[in-house]
Amino acid sequence: MTRNSGTEINIKINKAWVPLRLGSTRPDPRTLRRGRLVHGGHAVPLRTCVGCRVRTAKSDLLRLVAVGGDIVPDPQGRLPGRGASLHPDLGCLDLAERRRAFPRAFRLPGPLDAKALREHLEAPPAGCVGRKAGNGSDV
Ligand SMILES: [Zn+2]
Predict the structure, then answer these.
(1) Which structural domains are found in the chain, ordered by start?
(2) What is the DSSP-derived secondary structure letter of residue 61?
(3) What is the pTM for the complete model shown?
(4) Which of 4, 71, 113, 138 has the fewest CB neighbours in a 10 Å radius?
(5) How many CB atoms lie within 10 A of CB 97?
(6) Cα of 54 to ligand 1 centre, how many Å?
(7) Which one-letter DSSP state was computed for residue 14?
(8) 21-64: per-residue pLDDT in tens?
(9) Which pLDDT score is estimated for 18?
């Protein structure tokens, strides 16, 4: 009897039968995510911006964490808890607020205050962090 070379099975994807070769470590191109985020064959971690919903390299997005009802930026990625990712861009912040993406992203019920985040995005980029140095106690 004739046998197929290699082990091949058919799986059903979107109502179409697709041959799948077992034992192959090569990823099927169909399972690769679209995008231009592969550097020299190494896939970078991807995150979805909660504002514009674009998948981007994690390093291009700002990690956010909800702390007691406030959304705080976590550029170092060191805060514990469930995070969300956003382009460091006011446009994406506006989009996320308009579609109420934050409570969903953080899995929290209540409204979240993005004021600290907005201030972070409106502030000049890194390098000017110390503009209020020495006066941390103003309310
Ligand atoms: Zn975005």
Answers:
(1) 38-124 (3.30.1230.10)
(2) S
(3) 0.60
(4) 138
(5) 18
(6) 6
(7) T
(8) 666 455 555 555 555 545 566 788 999 999 999 999 999 999 99
(9) 73
Q: Is residue 2 predicted with pLDDT exceeding 60?
A: no
Orientation of helix 90-98 relative to helix 115-122, angle to 10°: 160
d(CA 96, ligand 1 centre) in Å? 9
Query: Residue 69 and residue 76: Cα distance in Å, rounded?
Result: 20
Question: What separation in Å is there between the alpha carbon of 105 and the centre of ligand 1?
Answer: 14
Count CB atoms within 10 A of the CB of residue 30: 8
Distances (CA, A) of 33 to 17, 20, 101, 108, 120: 20, 18, 23, 29, 31
* pLDDT at residue 1, as a whole number: 56
